[in-house]
Model the fold of this input.
Amino acid sequence: LAYIIIFTLIGSVVSLIGGILLLVKEKFAIKISHFLTSFAAGTLLGTAFFDLLPEAQVAGSSNGVNIFLWTLLGILIFFLLERFIHHHDHGKNPEDKKSVVPLIVIGDSLHNFIDGVAMAATFLVSIPLGIVTSLAVAAHEIPQEIGDFGLMLDKGVPRKRVLLINFYSATAALAGAVLTYLAKDSLQGLLPAVLALTAGFFIYIAAANLIPEIHSRENQKIAFWETVMLFLGVLVVYLVISVLEGRV
Done:
């Protein structure tokens, strides 16, 4: 429980750094967010394929859990979540600030809650797996928070309120983590499925959200370094897992 709470808080606090950086140094934050997005995509893919799926396969082989089915369900669930949020977002008048901001908060809170469930579930399997998953969550949350902070500021929300909103939204991760821990006895047989679901979430976020954003850059020099950062993210996850498992 201590590991779950500590690393969930670390992930939540680290994610807010991106938004705070935007408030302090907007141009610098926007500039590095491109590279952070690429690095995050690499860490999510690396965590899904090097860590979550292998662990899910091993844990699920004894009770016949179909890992591929649950991974696909993870991708589809996240798609439906985003579809719901985007549908309601696009149905609103862009000039109506009060209608758009709550959607941002709801979407971010749900996302953070799922992150908390994912981190806690992986710690229930093993501490090294939980640490790697927490690092991947923190990596992809930083550029996301830069985007969320920027969007709310653009809608006219005061800076202090933006910070408070995102702080409370980040606590949803802690709620998800603690609830998952409290339900650990009921979840024991479902852990392989939860790991595969989490892998599906990570693959979806990387492939559907982050990589298209990387491809949208037209500057060839930036595109090259973004590509380097994506591969670096994959490599860092592989090395961290190897160290934690004592392979290097």
